[in-house]
C-alpha cells in the first residue's frame, strides 16, 4: 500500500512519535511525505520515504495528484486545527480529493491508529481492488 504522511509544524512531534510506535507496520508499505515531515520521520525512524515539496510549496497538491491518479491508498495527515496555514486551499483540496476517491484519511492520531491497525488486519484490502481497476 502507498501511504502518505503529513503533519503541520505543531503536530510533527506527534507524527514522529506515532511513526516510531508503528514503524513495524509502516515499514511494510511504500511511504510518501511532504518535505519537512518526511525528513523528520526518516531521521527519527530510518524509514525510507519518498519526499515531495514542503506543504506550503506544493507538497499537499503533489500528494493530491497521486490520489487523483489512483496512486495513493491512505493519507495520515496530522492537521493543526488551531493555527492558520498560508496554503489552506491546498489542504482543503487534498482532503476533498481523499473524499472524491474514497481514500482513507486520518487527520489526527486517534483515527490514524485505527487505520494502521485496520491496515494490519486487512480491512483496507478494498484498495487492492481499486488498484487493479485503475490499471
Ligand atoms: O504543510 C504541510 C501540510 O499542509 C506539511 O509540509 P511540511 O511537511 O513540508 O512541513
From TrEMBL:
Q: Which GO terms describe its molecular function?
A: methylglyoxal synthase activity
> What does UniProt list as catalytic?
60
Keywords carried by this UniProt record? Lyase
Where does the signal sequence lie?
Answer: none
Q: Name one GO cellular component term.
A: cytosol
For biological process, the GO terms are:
methylglyoxal biosynthetic process
Q: Entry's InterPro entries?
A: Methylgl_synth, Methylglyoxal_synth_AS, MGS-like_dom, MGS-like_dom_sf
SUPFAM superfamilies registered for this protein in UniProt: Methylglyoxal synthase-like (SSF52335)
Name the positions where substrate binds.
8, 12, 34-37, 54-55, 87
In short, the EC number is 4.2.3.3
Domain MGS-like as annotated: residue spans = 1-135
Listed NCBIfam families: MGSA, PRK05234.1
Record's protein name: Methylglyoxal synthase
Gene name per UniProt: mgsA
Amino acid at each position: 500500500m502507498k501511504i502518505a504522511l503529513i503533519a503541520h509544524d505543531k503536530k510533527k512531534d506527534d507524527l514522529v512519535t506515532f511513526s516510531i510506535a508503528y514503524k513495524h507496520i509502516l515499514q511494510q508499505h511504500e511511504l510518501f511525505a511532504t518535505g519537512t515531515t518526511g525528513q523528520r520521520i526518516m531521521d527519527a525512524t530510518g524509514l525510507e520515504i519518498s519526499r515531495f515539496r514542503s506543504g506550503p510549496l506544493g507538497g499537499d497538491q503533489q500528494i493530491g495528484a497521486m490520489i487523483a491518479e489512483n496512486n495513493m491508498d491512505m493519507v495520515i495527515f496530522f492537521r493543526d486545527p488551531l493555527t492558520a496555514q498560508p496554503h489552506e486551499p491546498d489542504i482543503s483540496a487534498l482532503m476533498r480529493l481523499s473524499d472524491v476517491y474514497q481514500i482513507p484519511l486520518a487527520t489526527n492520531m486517534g483515527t490514524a491508529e485505527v487505520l494502521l491497525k485496520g491496515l494490519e488486519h486487512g480491512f483496507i484490502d478494498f484498495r487492492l481492488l481499486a488498484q487493479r481497476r485503475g490499471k
